[in-house]
Amino acid sequence: MSATTTAITTKTHVKSGPKGKGGVPSKRPLRDEDDDKGSDEDAGDGGKKKPASKVPRAYNDGIGTAASERFGLPNDIAISSIELLTYFPKHAALWPELLLRLVRNDFSLPECAVRQLYARGNLDKAEFTRRYASLRKAAKTAGQRKFNDPNFTLTSYKNGQNQQPGHPDLQPYTMADVPAGGQIEHLYHVNRMTVPAAPPPNIPLNQARATLADLANGVTQHPPPGQRGVLTKCILWAIANSQDANYDTHNLMTIVNMAGNNFVPDAGANTLTWDQDGMTDTQTIPRP
Fold first, then answer.
1. Residue 222 φ then ψ, to 5°
2. pLDDT in tens, 9-46
3. Cα 219 to Cα 35, 47, 88, 211, 222, distances in angstroms
4. What is the spatial distance between Cα 115 and Cα 275, in angstroms, rounded to a whole number?
């Protein structure tokens, strides 16, 4: 195995919380902390004046090694929640459905921040505070765009208000959400997401594809067993064989079809709770 191989951890999945009909976990309410109310602590340079001894941090410092959000996403493969947070942490800013999918399946924004930073060995209080603030802003923008509502808040749309239920597009997956003629796995194909899955049309995407080296850059904790799709398995194979710079997200099937590989997503990709299982795994990581 190459010296560049990054650490891989294995966690035991322990599902928590009550189960609803069909074995799907019951709706997990979001707290008000998930809405972007703004605070001096979370503000940028224009916020509360900080002591001169503190070095200002940018919102993306903790994920600075991640691939640019202007790289396109892999099509026609199931991508787990942990893969999204590990390999595409910057994409939440431009790809609204990515973050809303996680919220839909019961991730809180602090949990998203924890996983993004944990994956890159940057999980500390200062980075967590900045990352969480950035995700709050991204979630608000995503919701405003998806639901065409300038007054969008995660709490009201997820939990409901005034005795009205939450919006169905922010409730955990059910069989009714499986694309017509499709399979459960297709829920986790990013190119099958409903509009607006892509960035706004005025923001050009990089015409080149992210290499597997781009995606793995800075990652110290890859998705654990149970949360590995074809993407993770190809990345780990490429790193182990010093080929990560030679393959990109467009030719993953070349790796899959090599003799002896036959990579397929972990079994969770065929369940409605794959994202929620990733949330449960993330809850085992101590929050700073």
1. -75, 165
2. 434 444 444 444 444 444 566 654 566 554 333 333 33
3. 28, 31, 11, 14, 7
4. 13
